[in-house]
Amino acid sequence: MSKKNKDIPVEVQEVQKNYQGQSVTAQALIIAKKEIGYLVPQSKGWLAVLPEGAPQSVKTEDEGYDLLIRAWNLHE
Known about the structure:
The protein is 20% helix and 46% strand. It has 76 residues and is α+β, with helices and mostly antiparallel strands.
């Protein structure tokens, strides 16, 4: 028997985060009511910040969301 795929709610919220001592507007990625990371806009691209890892630079917003989802999927 095969399992039926479950729908997992995914949303992006604009939030204020304290990053390196400064208050910045970030894009938080929330999966199943849990924040898995956020993106901080930089002068060239974005910075993907994971809860347990070091921040990583990415070129596009989509690339940042992809990185956050891959890290969440790996550890979940």
